[in-house]
Amino acid sequence: MRAKLALVTRSRPQSLRDFCRGILLSPDLESKLTAPPVGGFDDSEPGPALRLLRPARAPELMLDGGAPKLPRPAALRDPRARALCLARFAHHELMAVELFAWALLRWPELDPSLRAALADILADEQRHCRAYLGRLEALGECIEDHPQSDYFWKHVPVIETAPDGPLAFLCAMGLTLEQANLDFSALYRDAFLEAGDPASAQVCEDVQRDEIRHVRVAATWIRRLAPGSDDTEIYTQHVPFPLGATRARGRRFDAGARRQAGLSEHFIEVVRQARRSGRG
User: Fold this and answer.
1) What is the DSSP letter of 17?
2) Distances, alpha carbon 12 to alpha carbons 15, 37, 41, 214, in Å
3) pLDDT per position as a tens digit, 222-280
4) Can you tell me whether residue 11 is helix, strand or coil?
5) What is the DSSP string of 24-66?
6) pLDDT at 173 over 50
7) Contact predicate 130/33, CB 8 Å
8) Which is it for the CA torsion 34, 109, 49, 44, positive or negative?
9) Distances (CA, A) of 178 to 43, 173, 209
10) N or C: which terminus of the chain carries fewer CB neighbours within 10 A?
């Protein structure tokens, strides 16, 4: 008698679309920080464009119009100042998670290689957020105890309506906000070390290493999307106002990290020399 063959049912990998929808439409922190599936995503059917101007947020995570000024590095010997920094950094990473999910839903027609790169960055941002939250918890606090600025999200309407939205997004996120974090992550890494908090310093170190790669992705893809132009020209034409070169740096400028990210020497100098007046 022939033995019956067992039927093996293979579940289909989670779609990237459903994963991103879960991040934006779920109000709780746990859902937004759920790691990607181990087997990767199914992105064979990205679906129609989904346009959202704000993510779902639980009441304790509601976006506010502003937040207190970030403590100066010298203030970090005070545990309260360290907590304020960690909460701010964690929320920036949370907004980045949401915005990369937003971009993947907004432009399903993007090149599959670019979509895969953005999905990888999204996963990095989740990991960064969880790491900052872990350090915040070690200080006996949580992100819900601190105001949630809408700084990243308030730029979405301009990006969404830009003539070339993907370029505007890459210039805003990769070449402005993440480029600036090349400076801030290194500055606060050293400040946490001086304050006797090497664990938080290590998180900042890990974040800067990943941000170099994120900036490189943005720099590579803007050149592919706008061939024949250099990174300075593309950035100047597509970065959404009021973002610009002055927002792409911190108080201590790290040219070396920018070179590792593949930015041209001209673009690096434009950002280094930018002043607070006008668009740049």
Assistant:
1) H
2) 8, 11, 9, 29
3) 999 999 999 999 999 999 999 999 999 999 999 999 999 999 999 999 999 998 644 44
4) coil
5) HH--SHHHHTPPPPTT--B-S---S----SS----GGG--BS-
6) yes
7) yes
8) negative
9) 25, 6, 11
10) N
What are the backbone angles phi and psi of residue 15, rounded to the nearest 5°?
-75, 145
Write the CB contacts of 102 (distance below 8 Å, at least 6 apart in sequence).
20, 24, 52, 55, 156
Residue type, 94: L
- Domains of the chain (ranges plus CATH)? 72-273 (1.20.1260.10)
Helices (H), the chain: 16-25, 29-32, 79-106, 112-138, 156-160, 165-172, 178-194, 198-225, 231-238, 255-260, 265-273
Place of tokens 């070179």: 259
What's the maximum distance between 2 C-alpha atoms anywhere in the chain?
Answer: 85
Q: 44-47 long-range contacts, Cβ below 8 Å, gap at least 24?
A: 45/15, 45/17, 46/16, 46/17, 46/104, 46/108, 46/109, 46/115, 47/17, 47/108
Tell me the pLDDT tens digit for each residue of 109-164.
Answer: 999 999 999 999 999 999 999 999 999 999 999 999 998 899 999 999 999 999 99
Neighbour-count burial of 96, counting CB atoms closer than 10 A to its CB (0-12 exposed, 13-18 middle, 19+ buried)? buried
Give the N- to C-terminal CA distance of the chain in Å, as an integer: 80
Contact by Cβ (8 Å): 263, 231? yes
- Give dist(CA 238, CA 222) in Å, integer: 10
Closest CA to 215 of 254, 260, 185, 183: 260
